[in-house]
């Protein structure tokens, strides 16, 4: 996915404030469903029809006006106008939850109290024997209260749904940057509110019918059985409504997170999860975004760092951070130097020389990487390549020799910019080195140093004496497996005095016949 979540309902063009108003209007058919169930059970169709008409003419428009009044901050966000007192989108929706829930309770309580007080739920032919005005007033207040509690729970879940849609819409369409930080509300609290609507309120209603308002229900044309059926019917409607929205509030954020994770798996580190809810899932979305940002930063650092030090070294340093300490390890070192580089520099302008060098280094580095070597550093036209450090490789000696042969094979036929052909000399040695980050903190570098490095450098220069291309020491030759040793045409040059060494070193040449190695 892109940075924004996919639209879950309706069209992207439907603004969140209108989405909220449409969903709040859904309370009207719920109200009418309760009225119809009452009419079927009591037979009081005349009162039911007038109540249905009042629901359409008064209750519905009142809900729309309520949504319009309470969503003024949301409409400002839709117009990309900055908020003076509420910068966080999460705070806007959090406040909207509270206000919508409260005012739907007030509106529904007043609306239902008016309906009951008009006597449209009472059967006029029934004699009011044993029922006092106080009982009627108490019953009217009680049933209006329970009704309002049910509807304010519905309104709460509607604003959760509208909030999820609104956050997604703003993330896709807002021209101003918006902050989506959730204002924490527990997921457990939402489940408890659903339980209140599904279990507790209907149970209270049934108990009140069984023990306190049997006479009043009789005045409404309901015997005890019909009253309980009416209560159970309201429970079924409440259960369906609440379970649907609870599932939506869980599945939509999880789908959003799933889409983001899939995008990250596809190496899209620009993917972004939107905190669609104010609960643990919303917080998890924020944490996923933080994780993605850290991965993105880490990759950027690795790529940038890798321009100045070998990528494998960069990865190792980043993984170890301050715990990275110098290592003492047996490694194979390879020095590569271009032959006749001075003449090349005299023949071309610096820009052209740099162009040729970039192509040359690019091709050589590919061969080095293919054989698990690490280019430790460049020195003008020369390169120091290490095997078995920093990354452990038991086959380091054989891979170093094969790398040298493949480089020579490349140079036999490769034509560089301006028709140039290059040749190089390579010296290889195996021995103990110290590898690590050295230097002051503000200018530290990763390098290898030790006598084995110096010998490899001397062998590279010794190629001039033998008119050879690849020289290696007996220390490297001794580590070549039998199959590799048989595959290379190694010619012993005998003990040789290496500048800076008191003891002579046995040297081998890899002869040009090997440069046709397949």
Fold blueprint:
Elements: H1 16-25, H2 27-42, H3 45-70, H4 72-78, H5 89-117, H6 133-173, H7 187-211, H8 214-219, H9 224-265, H10 280-305, H11 311-320, E1 327-338, H12 341-347, H13 350-370, E2 374-379, E3 382-387, H14 396-413, E4 424-438, E5 445-449, H15 451-466, E6 470-473, H16 474-478, H17 482-487, E7 490-496, E8 505-510
Helix pairs in contact: 1-3, 1-6, 2-3, 2-9, 3-5, 5-6, 6-7, 6-9, 7-9, 9-10, 10-11, 13-14
Q: What can you see in these coordinates?
A:
The protein is of the alpha+beta class and 518 residues long. Helix content is 60%, strand content 12%. The protein is built from 17 helices and eight strands. Strands 1, 2, 3, 4, 5, 6, 7 and 8 form an eight-stranded mixed beta sheet that branches. Helix 1 packs antiparallel against helix 3, helix 2 packs antiparallel against helix 9 and helix 9 packs parallel to helix 10. The N terminus is likely disordered.
Keywords:
518 residues; alpha+beta; eight-stranded mixed sheet; 17 helices
Please summarize what this structure is.
The chain has 518 residues and is of the alpha+beta class. It is built from 17 helices and eight strands. Helix 1 (16-25) packs antiparallel against helix 6 and helix 13 (350-370) crosses helix 14 (396-413).
| Helicity level | 55-70%
Radius of gyration: 40 Å
Q: Percent of residues in beta strands?
A: 5-15%
**Uncertain regions spanning at least 5 consecutive residues:** 1-11
């Amino acid at each position: 996915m892109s940075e924004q979540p996919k639209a879950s309902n309706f069209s992207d063009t439907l603004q969140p404030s209108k989405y909220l108003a449409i969903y709040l209007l859904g309370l009207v058919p719920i109200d009418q469903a309760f009225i119809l169930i009452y009419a079927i059970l009591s037979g009081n169709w005349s009162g039911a029809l007038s109540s249905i008409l009042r629901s359409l003419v008064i209750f519905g428009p009142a809900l729309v006006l309520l949504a319009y009044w309470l969503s003024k901050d949301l409409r400002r966000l839709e117009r990309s106008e900055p908020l003076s007192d509420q910068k966080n989108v999460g705070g806007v929706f959090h406040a909207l939850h509270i206000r919508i829930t409260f005012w739907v309770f007030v509106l529904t309580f007043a609306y239902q109290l008016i309906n009951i007080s008009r006597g449209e739920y009472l059967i006029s032919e029934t004699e009011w024997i044993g029922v006092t005005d106080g009982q009627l007033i108490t019953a009217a207040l009680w049933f209006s209260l329970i009704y309002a509690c049910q509807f304010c729970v519905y309104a709460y879940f509607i604003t959760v749904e509208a909030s999820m849609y609104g956050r997604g819409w703003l993330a896709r369409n807002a021209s101003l940057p918006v902050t989506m930080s959730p204002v924490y509300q527990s997921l457990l609290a939402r489940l408890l509110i659903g339980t209140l609507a599904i279990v507790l309120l209907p149970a209270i209603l049934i108990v009140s019918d069984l023990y306190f308002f049997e006479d009043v229900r009789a005045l409404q044309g309901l015997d005890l059985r019909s009253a309980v059926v009416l209560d159970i019917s309201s429970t079924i409607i409440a259960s369906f409504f609440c379970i649907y929205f609870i599932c939506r509030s869980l599945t939509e954020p999880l789908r959003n997170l799933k889409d983001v994770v899939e995008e990250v798996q596809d190496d899209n580190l620009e993917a972004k999860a939107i905190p669609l809810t104010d609960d643990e899932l919303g917080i998890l979305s924020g944490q996923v975004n933080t994780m993605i940002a850290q991965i993105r930063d880490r990759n950027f650092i690795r790529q940038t760092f890798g321009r100045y030090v070998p990528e494998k070294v960069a990865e190792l340093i980043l993984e170890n951070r301050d715990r990275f300490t110098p290592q003492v390890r047996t490694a194979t070192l390879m020095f590569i130097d271009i032959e006749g580089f001075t003449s090349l520099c005299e023949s071309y302008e610096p820009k052209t020389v740099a162009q040729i060098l970039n192509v040359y280094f690019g091709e050589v580095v590919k061969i080095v990487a293919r054989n698990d070597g690490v280019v430790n550093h460049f020195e003008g036209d020369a390169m120091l390549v290490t095997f078995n450090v920093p990354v452990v490789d038991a086959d380091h000696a054989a891979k170093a020799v094969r790398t040298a042969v493949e480089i020579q094979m490349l140079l036999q036929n490769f034509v560089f910019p301006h028709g140039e052909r290059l040749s190089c000399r390579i010296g290889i040695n195996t021995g103990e080195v110290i590898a690590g980050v050295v230097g002051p903190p503000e200018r530290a570098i990763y390098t290898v140093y030790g006598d084995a490095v110096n010998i490899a450098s001397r062998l590279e220069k010794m190629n001039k004496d033998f008119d050879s291309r690849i020289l290696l020491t007996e220390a490297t030759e001794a580590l070549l497996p039998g199959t590799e040793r048989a595959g290379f045409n190694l010619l012993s040059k005998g003990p040789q005095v290496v500048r800076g060494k008191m003891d002579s070193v046995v040297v081998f040449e890899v002869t040009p016949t090997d440069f046709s190695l397949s």
